[in-house]
Design brief:
The protein has helices spanning 17-21, 38-41, 64-72, 75-90, 153-157, 166-183, 193-206, 226-240, 244-251, 259-267, 271-279, 292-309, and strands spanning 4-7, 53-58, 105-111, 117-121, 128-132, 149-152. The protein is an alpha/beta fold and 310 residues long.
Length: 310
């Protein structure tokens, strides 16, 4: 049986003996005999983000990838931190939080597979997510819906151990990327796959978890996904202000994607014009060398997933 750790975070109020002995202060202009309404003096609670149950599974504790993972990740701390990074980047909380997907649980699964990671719904329903790393068998349309995350033990075992922070940052970066897929909108499955993956890597960039081999490049199209689209979205955020990509995500909430309308409504320009402006800020050609070992160990699994995306 695979060992399972269930991560549940709770907040409890505590009082000390001195707290109990000290009466609460009276509200302004109130006296012991007044009939001031409690509702009139009680402050409105500050909106917060929704919570969900976080679970963790490791299918092989003896695998070298498991050793790397547990040596660099405190799952009870880093898993909730990834959720916080995603929600705080993509959403502003409200009293109802009806604009945030109602995810009830996320299960992070460590297992051996042929790609870096993926996220999908589980057998309960689509509000319960799993992040896994196994050979990809999901149909393409399932990649464009909120889904749970899996992590490939073979990939984890090959993450370079130097510099000292490399393994930890890569693990948390991939986890943040996959967690985005649990909470992002996708225009009823009509949004381009490159935009979906680009938003995930944009959030990873915002979290300060970009790996050293990432670079800004001129490409033929804006929607080639991952860091290529992620850096483009980062540029939009810089040009049009904090929260711009939050608006992009929320615009995918309850409408089908229409490229001719979508970007113009948000930024008064078509996406091709935005892409052209972005490319104009980049060197004509980037001749910088990419470390061969880093490229082989970190890009290869992602290249395989890009082939699935087409």
């Amino acid at each position: 049986m695979s060992p399972t750790v269930q991560v549940v975070t709770t907040t409890t109020a505590t009082t000390t003996a001195n707290d109990e002995a000290t009466p609460s202060p009276l509200p302004p202009h109130a006296s012991p005999g007044s009939k001031t309404s409690a509702a009139a003096t009680r402050p409105h609670p500050k909106p917060g983000y929704p919570t969900c149950k976080l679970r963790f599974e490791c299918h092989d504790l003896s695998h070298g990838g498991a050793e790397v993972f547990f040596g660099n990740n405190m799952v009870w701390r880093d898993f909730p931190a990834a959720v916080t990074s995603v929600l705080s980047t993509l959403y502003m909380p409200s009293q109802s939080n009806s604009h945030i997907p109602p995810v009830r649980s996320v299960t992070l699964v460590l297992r051996e597979m042929d790609i870096l990671a993926y996220t999908t719904g589980n057998e309960l329903d689509d509000d319960h997510k799993e992040i896994q790393q196994v050979a990809w068998t999901q149909p393409l349309e399932n990649m464009l819906t909120p889904r749970p995350p899996s992590f490939n033990l073979k990939y984890i075992a090959k993450i370079p151990a130097t510099p000292a922070s490399r393994q930890k940052e890569e693990l948390q970066g991939v986890l943040v990327h996959e967690m985005v897929h649990c909470w992002q909108w996708n225009a009823y499955g009509t949004a381009p796959g490159g935009l979906i993956e680009g938003i995930a890597d944009f959030v990873r960039l915002k979290a300060g978890l970009a790996p050293p081999h990432w670079k800004k490049e001129r490409r033929d199209s804006w929607d080639q996904g991952y860091q290529h689209t992620g850096y483009f979205l980062e540029w939009i955020e810089t040009q049009y202000g904090e929260g711009s990509i939050r608006r992009v995500n929320e615009a995918l909430m309850n409408k089908r994607y229409d490229e001719d309308v979508f970007w113009t409504k948000l930024f008064s320009k078509g996406v091709k014009d935005l892409w052209s402006e972005y490319c104009g800020t980049l060197p004509a050609k980037d001749d910088g060398a990419v470390d061969a070992v880093v490229a082989e160990e970190n890009e290869k699994p992602k290249d395989q997933l890009e082939k699935v995306l087409g």
